[in-house]
What we know:
By secondary structure, chain A is mainly beta. Chain A has no helices and 11 strands.
Amino acid sequence: DAGITQSPRYKITETGRQVTLMCHQTWSHSYMFWYRQDLGHGLRLIYYSAAADITDKGEVPDGYVVSRSKTENFPLTLESATRSQTSVYFCASSLGRGRFYEQYFGPGTRLTVT
Amino acid sequence: AQKITQTQPGMFVQEKEAVTLDCTYDTSDQSYGLFWYKQPSSGEMIFLIYQGSYDEQNATEGRYSLNFQKARKSANLVISASQLGDSAMYFCAMREGPGTASKLTFGTGTRLQVTL
Lengths: 114, 116
């Protein structure tokens, strides 16, 4: 049971470059989310998706693009990376129903923009 | 206004003692859910406990319990009999509304250090 995976786990890129962070889940969960974690801010929602081809902005969407052509994949693209996007990025998924609406998190991707 | 406030950046507790991590929230929704997650130094986010706004009893999961005071809008996490492995960051989070778009808003976290 692979669960939810993220790749790469670590990435160093230069300012202005495009970079894509991958997220894959094996549970067929409807909902998927991207968060960034920064000191002093906790986790903040970037984008989320309720199903394939349905995406919506979260709290901090500027500078990011998402797509979801398949239920199991939810890539996050930084079109032109900036130093302020240096962060740890977490992908999460949720069944979207039931009592908890619990979210299951991937292991995170540590991104450094130089 | 912050939707989730965790006022304790860091806490120390001795092994085998109980500790309370504070969380207050702000919402105008009648239906909402409150979560606690643990993030050890390895970085993964681990779900600990959940409390629904309509739950009359405080949630418990093993050594974790949630002290839910709806009128005060607080949802404090209580860890009983602390263990060295409890040393980690702890995040309180809230899901607002009854809808299925289960977006979470997180607090800034509390770093707990368990000492001998």
